[in-house]
Design brief:
Strand content: 5-15%
Order of helices and strands: EHEHEHEHEHEHEHEHEHHEH
Number of strands: 10
Number of helices: 11
Strand order of the largest sheet: 1-2-10-7-8-9
Shape: globular
Structural class: alpha/beta
CATH class of the largest domain: Alpha Beta
Length: 318
C-alpha cells in the first residue's frame, strides 16, 4: 500500500557544499522530508511496511509512542486515518495547556493520545506494550509499533531506500542521518552492507544506539537475504546538548546554513542536529570534502519549528 510519495528527490546542495569545502556535486541531500504523508518525513517508508503487516494480521488499531514533538507519532496517526484504522499514541510528556508543533497535527488526525509524563526510552516502550494489552483486553486487535518504527521490518524500509538512492547517484561515500531510535541508521547500513558508510548523529532518544544499530542492521540483512553487514558503527554523540529536543548553538547554525544557502528547512529536534553533525564532521576532519561524496538524509520534522520554544530561538538569529 502506498503511503509515501516515492522516489523522493536527491539533488546537490552546492552553495552549502561550497561553504564547507565540497566541490560541485560533492554534497547531496536525499529529500525524505517530501514523502508526502502528513507533511512528509522518513517514517512514511517504515509505515508502509508496518501497516501492511498490521492489516495482514487483522489488526484494527495502531499503537505507538514518542516524545512530545514526535514525527513518528504524527505520521502513524495520519497513516491510521488513511487506512481506516484506530490509533493510540503514547507521548512521553505531560499534557500541555495548548497544543503546539506536531501536537497540533496529532490532535487534528484524531488518535487517542496518552500523556504518560516524563518517560525514558525503555519505559516508553513498556508503556506502548501496556496500552496495546489494555486495548486487546476490551476487544480491539492492536498492532504495537516500537518508538520510531525501529523494528526489523521498519528498518528494512531504509535498506530498500538505499537501492532507490543508488539509482539516483553513482557514488555515495558517506550518508549522514539523525539517530533517534536507530532504525533508519540500521536500515541504511544494511542496504549498503557497510556500517562505516553511515554517520548517525545521536539526538538523545535512545541510550544504547551503539549496540542497537548493528544488531538491527544484521537482522535486516538476514531478512533480506543479503550478505552480513561489515565495518564499525559510526555515531556522533556530541550534538545532543542538554538532551532530546533541547536547542543547541550548533543546531541553530545548521538550520540557518540550510535555510539561507539552500532554502531547505530542517527541524530543531532531528535533522538540524544531524546537519550540525555533518558540519562538525567536516570541520573536525571525520569527513573529507575533497575526497568523499556525502549524502545528507533529510528526515523531515518541520512542524516542531512552530512550537513557541523553538520559534523564539530562531528569532535570536536576527
Amino acid at each position: 500500500m502506498a503511503l509515501a510519495h516515492l522516489p523522493t528527490p536527491c539533488h546537490p546542495m552546492d552553495r552549502l557544499g561550497g561553504e564547507l569545502g565540497f566541490p560541485p556535486g560533492g554534497l547531496l541531500v536525499k529529500r525524505d522530508d517530501l514523502t508526502g504523508l502528513a507533511g512528509g518525513g522518513n517514517k512514511a517508508r517504515k509505515l508502509e511496511l508496518l501497516c501492511a503487516q498490521a492489516i495482514a494480521e487483522g489488526c484494527d488499531t495502531l499503537v505507538t509512542g514518542g516524545g512530545k514533538q514526535s514525527n513518528h507519532a504524527r505520521m502513524t496517526a495520519a497513516a491510521a486515518s488513511v487506512l481506516g484504522l484506530a490509533c493510540t499514541v503514547v507521548l512521553s510528556a505531560n499534557r500541555p495547556d495548548a497544543p503546539t508543533g506536531n501536537v497540533v497535527l496529532d490532535e487534528l488526525f484524531g488518535p487517542e493520545i496518552v500523556w504518560a509524563g516524563d518517560l525514558g526510552y525503555e519505559s516508553l516502550e513498556e508503556r506502548i506494550t501496556a496500552e496495546a494489552e489494555r486495548l486487546e483486553a476490551v476487544g480491539h486487535r492492536p498492532y504495537a509499533i516500537p518508538v520510531g518504527g525501529a523494528s526489523t521490518l521498519g528498518a528494512l524500509a531504509y535498506a530498500l531506500a538505499v537501492d532507490e538512492l543508488l539509482e539516483q547517484t553513482d557514488a555515495c561515500d558517506v550518508i549522514v542521518v539523525a539517530d533517534g531510535s536507530g532504525g533508519t541508521h540500521a536500515g541504511l547500513a544494511a542496504g549498503f552492507g557497510d556500517l562505516e558508510k553511515v554517520l548517525g548523529v545521536d539526538v538523545g532518544t535512545r541510550p544504547n544506539l551503539a549496540e542497537a544499530v548493528p544488531l538491527m542492521a544484521a537482522a535486516v540483512a538476514e531478512q533480506l537475504g543479503r550478505a552480513p553487514v561489515h565495518g564499525q558503527v559510526r555515531i556522533d554523540d556530541d550534538r545532543v546538548g542538554a538532551g532530546y529536543g533541547e536547542p543547541t548553538d550548533a543546531c541553530l547554525e545548521a538550520l540557518a546554513l540550510a535555510a539561507r544557502l539552500e532554502g531547505i528547512v530542517l527541524d530543531p529536534v532531528y535533522s538540524g542536529k544531524a546537519m550540525a553533525g555533518l558540519v562538525a564532521g567536516v570541520r573536525e576532519g571525520r569527513i573529507d570534502p575533497a575526497h568523499q561524496r556525502v549524502v545528507f538524509l533529510h528526515t523531515g520534522g518541520m512542524p516542531a519549528l512552530f512550537s513557541p520554544r523553538y520559534s523564539s530561538w530562531i528569532r535570536s538569529l536576527n
